Amino acid sequence: MSSTPVRAGLIGAGFIGGVHAHAIRSAGGILTRVADSSPEQAAQAAHRHGALAPAESALALIASDDVDVVHICTPNATHAELAELAIAHGKAVVCEKPLATSVGDAERLVSLARDASVVNAVPFVYRYYPTVREARSRIAKGEAGRLWLLHGSYLQDWLAGQGETNWRLDPLHGGGSRAFGDIGVHWCDLMEFVTGHRIIRLMARLSNAYAERVTSDGLHAAGTEDGAMVVFETDKGRLAP
Ligand SMILES: NC(=O)c1ccc[n+]([C@@H]2O[C@H](COP(=O)([O-])OP(=O)(O)OC[C@H]3O[C@@H](n4cnc5c(N)ncnc54)[C@H](O)[C@@H]3O)[C@@H](O)[C@H]2O)c1
User: Fold this and answer.
1) Ligand 1 centroid to residue 46 C-alpha, Å
2) What tens digit of pLDDT does each residue of 30-82 get?
3) CA distance linking residue 73 with residue 18, whole number of Å
4) What is the atom index within ligand 1 of the atom nearest the CA of 45?
């Protein structure tokens, strides 16, 4: 039995956008449109990723008749607005983490997607690792015994140098939290997915390696945290130091 391939549009053709383009094809979909920061960049990216055509803008892509699902791979602070527009057009959404940079925006998106009966998914990539599936399955079957303490860390040396720069360092693009909001979300999703526990309460302290960051135009106060320490409790009453 043959089915019609899903027609996907990609907004943001940077590092992870390339991974999505590959994944769309691997899953049997068609990459119909690509939008990026300018029509010129979109044209180059459409060619690079073998899309059928570029889109003039993110909005034009969302409105295109040949796009069934919108992949959002732009900087974090743009996610909520783009996802909301796609939902308003009745399109399915695959949005990179984090879904939004505020709880209010994330809750609104969940309810908009529910009301419109469209998929609004965040592709937390670690869920698909075989070791993760195995651990989840053993825990679900009770083979791992009683979980009474949950702990872990996610260490990354990217952006560890004072002179390294990226849009993630600017709260206007990366959102108000970096170590936790951009990277820690992976750890939280992974723990919840593997254990079946949900985080219900937490205490956190944020810290910075440098008070200031060196950029091409001088020294700037660090806009977001370089590290986060979190203590939490789950819905099944377990603690995490
Ligand atoms: N799941 C993962 O493992 C993973 C890994 C890396 C990045 N990400 C997420 O993917 C997103 C993109 O990260 P990246 O590392 O690919 O960044 P990137 O800087 O490599 O790419 C971002 C792209 O978006 C384009 N862009 C920026 N603003 C835009 C706009 N308003 N409209 C259209 N295009 C726009 C840029 O020109 C660029 O091509 C982020 O939200 C990040 O958190 C997820």
Assistant:
1) 15
2) 999 999 999 999 999 999 999 999 999 999 999 999 999 999 999 999 999 99
3) 9
4) 39
